[in-house]
Specification:
It comes from Corchorus olitorius. By secondary structure, this protein is mostly helical. It has 5 helices and 3 strands; from the N terminus they run αβαβαααβ.
Length: 132
């Protein structure tokens, strides 16, 4: 009977080591497989996790789904590519083409929605994100 209680206590201690101060945040990085996830929904969830202090690694970003037809998405992206600064285009909007960077930019947008445009909040979170 005593050994059962000791075993349960050891298991509980091991679980607490994996968590950061009992906050529900895992001390290690959480690996997210982005395959077949919707871009906006995934970005909003990841932004909230990052704001809570969780470290996240996203894999298979090239297989993220976007709602709508292929032609519509391509037209929308071409409209986005035409946006630039008139006086010096190199200062204008930077258009990322890599799927990981598109997800990164979407997460950045959600961070400002959740934080209300707080400056420097996204800079603190860059260390916790990895994309492959």
């Amino acid at each position: 009977m005593l050994s059962l209680a000791e075993g349960e206590r050891k298991r509980r201690e091991e679980r607490e080591k994996e968590m950061v101060s009992g906050s529900g945040i895992c001390a290690k990085r959480v690996v997210v497989d982005a395959r077949n996830h919707m871009l906006g929904r995934l970005a909003s969830i990841l932004a909230k996790e990052l704001l809570n202090g969780q470290k996240v690694v996203v894999v298979r970003c090239e297989e993220i789904c976007m709602s709508g037809g292929l032609v519509r998405q391509k037209m929308k992206y071409m409209r986005f590519l035409r946006k630039r600064m008139n006086t010096k285009p190199s200062h204008g909007p930077i258009h990322f083409r890599a799927p990981a960077k598109i997800l990164w930019r979407t997460i950045r947008g959600y961070v400002f929605i959740f934080y209300g445009g707080c400056q420097g909040s996204f800079g603190r979170m860059k260390k916790g994100m990895s994309f492959f």
